[in-house]
Amino acid sequence: MTRRNLFNYDWKQNMLTTLIYRSQVKPDLRQASIDKLVLDAIIKNTENSITGILIYDGSAFFQVLEGEEAVIAELFRRIRDDKRHSSVVLLMQDYSACRRFGAAGMQFFNVKSSDKDAILKDILTFSKIREKYLQDERIIRLISAFLTYCGRHTLPSDFRSAMWRLEDRIHFTRSQWPARLPEQLCQFALQPIVEAFTGKVSAYEALIRSPSGTAPIKMVGAAAADKLYHFDLQNKKQAFALASQILKEDERLSVNLLPGVLSSIPGAVEILLNQITAAGLRPEQVIVEVTETEAITDQESFYRALKSLRIAGTGCAIDDFGAGYSGLGLLARFQPDKIKIDMTLIQDIHLSGVKQAIVRSIARCCEELGIMVVAEGVEKMEEWCWLESIGIHLFQGYLFSRPVLNDTCLIRWPVRNQII
Ligand code: C2E
Ligand code: MN
Ligand code: MN
Fold first, then answer.
1. Atom 15 in ligand 1: residue holding the nearest Cα
2. How confident is the model at residue 1 (pLDDT cuts 50, 70, 90)?
3. Which atom of ligand 1 is nearest to the CA of 186?
4. Nearest partner of 335 among 361, 359, 367, 376, judged by Cα
């Protein structure tokens, strides 16, 4: 590859990107190896017209890389696989108008041998950072946050995913429950919400399925719009009947309801409570999950219905928190017992500094408000480890159990590997 003039970058042809990550340096990596790593990086990056900085604080790396989009993407793939460090967390990836570190090449800064303020000053001197660019200010803030919070992001050693494995346990099975009851418009699959550490099932979520067992998108599409709310309310009877066969004393059932059911069907709460007691359940055993997937037209009657549910002792949860409309506006108006963080924020959280910052602050906010937090869509051990390490204890996801039609059988629980 030919070397380009780093300052007159042709943005039309080459998408200039800036990528920033942090990582944990292997504890046994010696200074000589770090020196070699830096030297190798300088040579390789120069060949590929990659510029930037690398900061080392004695336990973590923080690197800014800038260059052509595809070249940076390829380099980052290799960086992730490099065994000399772990917990590589992406902090920023964005297009840029110009290179900030073109003059410096790949500059190395060691926090151990220099004062933090002096390092920041040096970086600003080396760089072409112009504070009138908002993006530049963000890069400076990220650098100074790293310098300020050195070591704070280290994952506790107890929560390294290699410390854990999963163990299958048959939780419960009701083989006599028919897989499909005749003349039913729908069925339900159950998925446990687990307290992974204590090995307890906190609740089961009832997820609607078609008579043939398919997932809900087609179901919802199949029902006429005006009948949808009534259908959503009526079919809960069946979810409660299923739960009454399965729930233990201290276990609960979560059901999903469109907000429109609560706001537009007169007496919806009463109907729901009748269904609950008719199935032999107590209202305290039921949690109603609402997602604000649609604009709620009659806000007042929606909140009135939630109030009636509370008076009856039924639990309430905000589902898919952080996705769509289901967010801070709803929380500011109404504080539920439980918040379920949407799976888009959970997936690959161990790799994303952005998701970590968002989820950490949701968890802190809920702690302050006394609200339980559930992480939805947990599929990987690494995701669970990261979430558990910041104090989230309730989980729902394929890692522990998939939804099972009319039943619930195997749950996989994390157990600690023997320390050798
Ligand atoms: P939800 O309430 O957020 O339910 C969780 C969904 O995530 C379920 O999809 C479940 O199968 C899926 N899921 C659970 N763990 C994982 C995981 O680790 N990875 C991935 N990729 N997915 C996971 P499902 O059953 O397809 O339901 C989709 C949505 O349909 C539900 O999302 C809920 O909003 C809605 N829904 C289900 N049943 C009802 C109902 O009776 N009434 C209403 N109004 N909506 C319902
Ligand atoms: Mn739900
Ligand atoms: Mn959800």
1. 397
2. very low
3. 41
4. 367
What one-letter code names the amino acid at 372? M
Q: Which ligand 1 atom is at minimum distance from the Cα of 399?
A: 18
Residues 102, 7: Cα–Cα separation, whole Å: 7
- 73 sits in which H/E element: helix 69-81
- Which atom belonging to ligand 1 lies closest to the Cα atom of 232? 42
Ligand nearest to the CA of 216: 1
CA angle centred on 268, ends 330 and 296, rounded to 5°: 30
Which pLDDT does position 299 carry in this prediction? 84
At 60-113, the pLDDT tens digits run: 999 999 999 999 999 999 999 999 999 999 999 999 888 888 876 789 999 887
Distance 217 CA to ligand 1 centre (A): 10
Choice from 205, 256, 257, 348 to test ligand 1 binding pocket (greatest atom count within 8 A of CB): 256
Return the ∠ at Cα 322 (arms to 87 and 289), rounded to 5°: 120
Question: Per residue in 30-56, is it b (16+ CB within 10 Å) or e — as a string?
Answer: eeeebeebeeebbeebeebbbbbbbbb
Note whether 299 and 329 are within 8 A (CB): no
Mention every residue, 6+ apart, whose C-beta is less than 8 A from residue 328: none
* Distance between CA atoms of residues 342 and 356, nearest Å: 13
CB 193 within 8 A of CB 254: yes
CA 126 to chain centre: 37
Report which of 217, 219, 191 is spatially closest to residue 206, judged by C-alpha positions: 191
Nearest CA to ligand 1 atom 4: 207
Q: 104-123 pLDDT, tens per residue?
A: 678 999 988 778 889 998 88
The helix (run of H) or strand (run of E) holding residue 16 is strand 16-25
Angle between helices 268-278 and 225-234 (to 10 degrees): 30
